[in-house]
Design a protein that fits this description.
4-stranded mixed β-sheet; alpha+beta; 7 helices; 6 strands; two-stranded antiparallel ribbon
């Protein structure tokens, strides 16, 4: 799905609603509150659904935001994003040596944000080459979180620590850089 970064939050939600209504005409008759609850439940129940419509990548050079991500299969001998995503969803510990520009870092960041938004009692530790890369992961997590519509952030507002080494939302969701 193409990014649609040119739209405001409300315009983007209307765009998503129109696209989903094509497959499910019942959505058209929902009140705004029912629509937002439906959207929240669909996103909470499926990382793939949330990623397709609300996953985020921010280009580090231009700052361009891409909303809505498509997963791709492996290329050049590397495990594909679909397989990587399946392992994350299945709760497998994934440690990967990877080439750059395969999307694994952004996929992991989006998965961490999804878990923090929709799961309970999540505490994530960042293991990275060094502190710089761990802090970069938290910075990216903030970017993904900040680009979520309000109806998805409603149950997980930023609370407690919010600095370069810790990001906390909700009552028990925290991502932290830990000294080795």
């Amino acid at each position: 799905m193409a990014g649609r970064a040119d739209l405001t939050e409300q315009e983007y939600l209307a765009y998503v609603r129109a696209k989903l209504t094509a497959d499910n005409p019942y959505i058209a008759g929902m009140s705004q509150q029912e629509w937002e609850q439906y959207l929240y439940n669909r996103c909470a129940g499926s990382f793939a659904f949330w990623l397709q419509w609300f996953g985020v990548i921010v280009d580090e050079d231009s700052g361009t935001i891409t909303r809505g991500l498509d997963l791709w299969d492996g290329v050049r001998g590397y495990q594909g994003q679909r397989e990587y995503c399946r392992l994350l969803i299945d709760g497998k510990d994934v440690i990967t040596g990877k080439a750059r520009q395969l999307g694994a870092s952004w996929l992991a960041t989006n998965f961490d944000c999804w878990e923090m938004l929709f799961k309970n009692n999540i505490r994530l530790a960042v293991i990275a080459q060094n502190e710089k890369y761990a802090v970069k992961h938290i910075t990216r997590l903030r970017q993904v979180y900040d680009n979520q519509p309000a109806c998805l952030r409603i149950k997980a507002p930023v609370v407690g620590s919010d600095n370069q080494q810790t990001f906390g939302i909700g009552t028990a969701q925290t991502l932290s850089v830990c000294d080795a």
